[in-house]
Write a structure and sequence with these properties.
alpha+beta; Creatine Amidinohydrolase; 2 domains; five-stranded mixed β-sheet; disordered N terminus; Creatinase/aminopeptidase-like; Pept_M24; Peptidase_M24B
């Protein structure tokens, strides 16, 4: 008996997550880009573009490696090219309906092969993804209904697992032990741990603290960036084992006030460079000093990349309804970060767990430090 692709997907425990409705909209968005450029085809080659266009397919093997697939979009259809040793799994578990699968030897050149599989008689070189990076970023901004549902589910699970793990932490727990527990929970949720950071009290000055064997001590920060079906949820939480100092509690309140000002600036039609100017002003306004924005990136739009893009003075993308963001203002010994989405009723925090202690800041529930 011949086994169908659907049967294989059921047996493997995974089927391609793509929504046919969402994919049709994404394809039209790309065709609109081609129309505007007067071109016939586009070659997609990065993790961000591929997972967005395929609507959640996994196109990696090594988290540190290049994608093991490329996609040519032309007016005749969508063509995915992968290596021969990946093709069976891609077909069974990751290939959306309506996408034609092609394979090349494992030693072949994906981009060259993908450029050649389009409409017969079309000799035009496809547009490179880098040449329409801004247009593709704009196409990703407004999350579609099924994307929003998947993102909200992942974000809530990440918020819950970080609550579970940090609630069991003790001063003698090491940073490696904490991130090991976080990694296990992320993987068990069917996600990939893209970033895991932790600092105990002896290393609280570091903004990007890769874990060490140091014990947590009296307070600690944990950061998780987890990807599932192409989408990345980002979260930071703090825990302490005493009442904290007056200076710490004051700094925590002030960094939440900085974030509140950023949220206020995140409205439809706002340009990222102008939000960035507001971020810089907010640090000074809340007593952190005018140079704090230089000590760490400030976040930006989120979704199929950790930040899409990181906000800077040169980022001129315009905020749209339905867009997701992760802002992460930080100061000496403090940082606040959640994944949020701009909805019709305002910003909705996606990485929220009702079990985590919170305080109301400018009408929104924001995470406090968990005191154990």
């Amino acid at each position: 008996m011949t086994q169908t692709t659907a049967d294989a997907s059921l047996l493997s425990g995974r089927a391609a997550p793509a929504s046919a409705e969402d994919r049709a909209i994404k394809r039209q968005r790309v065709l609109d880009i081609l129309d505007a450029k007067g071109q016939e085809s586009l070659l997609l080659t990065t993790h961000t573009a591929l997972t967005w266009y395929l609507d959640g397919s996994r196109v990696h093997i090594s988290l540190a490696g290049d994608p093991i697939a490329a996609v040519l979009v032309d007016r005749g259809g969508d063509h995915l090219v992968t290596f021969n040793n990946e093709a069976g799994r891609i077909e069974a578990e990751e290939l959306p309906s309506g996408v034609t699968l092609h394979s090349v030897p494992w030693y072949g050149n994906l981009h060259e092969a993908a450029s050649a599989v389009g409409l017969p008689g079309t000799n035009a070189v496809p547009v490179a993804e880098a040449d329409v990076a801004a247009e593709l970023r704009a196409a990703r901004q407004h999350l579609l209904p099924n994307e929003s549902t998947r993102y909200a589910s992942l974000s809530a699970e990440v918020a819950a697992l970080i609550t579970d793990v940090l609630s069991t932490a003790r001063p003698e727990t090491t940073e490696f032990e904490l991130v090991s527990a976080l990694a296990a929970r992320v993987v068990a949720a069917g996600a990939e741990p893209l970033v895991l950071l932790c600092n105990g009290s002896s290393r609280s000055s570091f903004r990007h603290p890769l874990a060490t064997h140091s014990p947590l001590g009296r307070r600690a920060m944990a950061v998780v960036c987890a990807r599932r079906d192409g989408m990345v949820a980002n979260i930071t939480r703090w825990v302490r084992f005493d009442a904290g100092t007056a200076e710490e509690r004051d700094a925590e309140a002030r960094i939440a006030a900085v974030e509140a000002d950023i949220f206020d600036a995140t409205v439809p039609g706002a340009r990222l460079d102008r939000i960035f100017a507001e971020i810089k002003a907010a640090y000074a306004r809340h007593g952190f000093g005018a140079d704090q924005w230089e000590q760490h990136h400030q976040g930006g739009p989120a979704g199929y990349a950790g930040r899409d893009p990181r906000v800077t003075a040169s980022a001129t993308d315009t905020v749209v309804p339905g867009q997701a963001f992760t802002w992460n203002p930080s100061g000496p010994g403090v940082k606040i970060e959640d994944t949020v989405q701009l909805t019709e009723s305002g910003l909705q925090v996606l990485t929220a767990d009702p079990r985590w202690p919170s305080a109301t800041v400018n009408g929104l529930q924001r995470p406090a430090t968990l005191q154990l």
